[in-house]
Design goal:
The protein is of the alpha+beta class and about 90 residues long. The protein has two helices and five strands. The protein has a single domain, classed as Alpha-Beta Plaits (2-Layer Sandwich), CATH 3.30.70.100.
Length: about 90
């Protein structure tokens, strides 16, 4: 199976709605490593690393988010594997 690493930026009503916690739970359920954090400009930023289909499942979740979120834009950029990630964390 192919490995995949992506960098996400999610815009909209994505802070204060448990977006980061929901992404962490979704990533862990799909065996995806990486991290997620809030940005000062109200976006959420994340890096996802894992099997392609598992990373795609987290991207799909991110396009909707948890109840209460309103995702207006999702930017996804491929990223080279720079260093091995051991878990998924909220920064």
């Amino acid at each position: 199976m192919a490995k995949k690493r992506v960098h996400l930026y999610v815009s909209g009503k994505v802070q204060g709605v448990y977006f980061r916690q929901g992404m962490k739970e979704t990533a862990e359920k799909n065996n995806v490593k990486g991290w997620v954090r809030n940005l000062p400009d109200k976006r959420v930023e994340a890096v996802l690393d894992g099997e392609e289909s598992n990373v795609d499942a987290v991207i799909d979740w991110s396009s909707i988010g948890p109840p209460g979120a309103i995702v207006e834009e999702l930017k996804v950029a491929s990223e080279n594997n720079i260093k091995e990630l051991s878990d998924f964390e909220i920064l």
